[in-house]
Specification:
By secondary structure, the chain is mainly alpha-helical. It contains 16 helices and 9 strands. The chain binds ligand V47. Ligand V47 binds next to strand 5 and strand 6.
Amino acid sequence: MIEVINARFISRSPQLWQNEVMYFSFDPHLRDIADKVEDGERLTFDEGMSLFATSDLNALGKLADTVRRQKHGLTTYYNVNRHFNHTNICVADCKFCGFYRRARQDDAYTHSVEEGVAIAREAVAEGATELHIVGGLNSKLPFTYYTDLFSSLKREFPKLHLKALTMVELDFMARFYKMSDEDVINQLHAAGMDSCPGGGAEIFAEPTRSRICDHKCDADRWLELAGKVHKAGLKTNATMLYGHIETIEDRVDHFVRLREQQDKTGGFQCFIPLAFYPPGSALSTLPGPDAIDNLKTIAVSRLMLDNFDHIKAYWVMLGKQTAQTALHYGANDLDGTITDGGELTEAYAVENGEVKMTKQELITMIENAGFEAVERDTVYNRVDKAAV
Ligand code: V47
């Protein structure tokens, strides 16, 4: 039943108006949650479950959009970036991954430092402010490969931001090279690592995590390392891989754990829900999430992660149309031009393997959705157009 409260929209403040829209919702749970959101109260695990359970997608989106507009107004960020996947050789054997290879396989590769520098040169010439560097857990590489790579990149491109290495890669390095976490982080930082991307979080809850990525570090370790990177003064991002074998409880648990870690160390700048793309993976018979699930997941993450500034609709995995729509469901960032996605990104790109957009395409997507496009650097400073 749709409840309409007559003429209550007229002559109210915009904020009240936003939440009164919720009285149009046929879902009583949403109406109660809307009151809490309006009062700035933190939502509980059970309320997260109710948000996922609603079939009133538009009311859920409106609620998330209200929070997004309170935090950012119409501003929607994008950046000019490029991905570099230095190696696809990996010992982890994750069931969702179509990218990794064993060292003996014909198409296994490791890029040289010089190849990395050449890719960065192209990226910088195209206006990139960020190089996103991740790869497999490769036991053939010495630690100095990473420090050489980062210091060579910084020597030639001191202003290029290196967003490099997930918590899973840092964990592997500490264990494999028998170094303390602090030594790994500090030496990589000294070589040029400026911040860390949010990958490897997958889904924190057990037994799901062990079923899909048994050889990766567990949730507590992922969060512990994120805290240590934050304490070293670097920002990181956080992701969640969804739409495979996880439950809705697993997703809400993921949000709650991220939120608790953020309360402690505060260094997460952005949350990126990653829509599972089955082709090429050991879970290729699964359907993956649909558009409704994608929009709900963006919206619920915006509402649950009250202490995260930014929610990114990663267009490569959502597809351009859903990513653009997600801007009305709580997302305030589309990520970047990417230009050349690197091999990892190509493995899960839903847009027929297409992993590049021009700056103008991104701006048009954002403006056509009714928002203001702002180019940012990796740590959300506005990029001065005159300086590019
Ligand atoms: O951790 C792997 C995911 C992640 C698949 O921090 C898959 O700004 C979908 O973390 N279908 C790596 N996803 C990518 C990542 C990322 C991407 C963009 C921006 C940022 C950031 C981080 O990709 C992995 C895993 O969760 N992934 N395989 C797949 N088949």
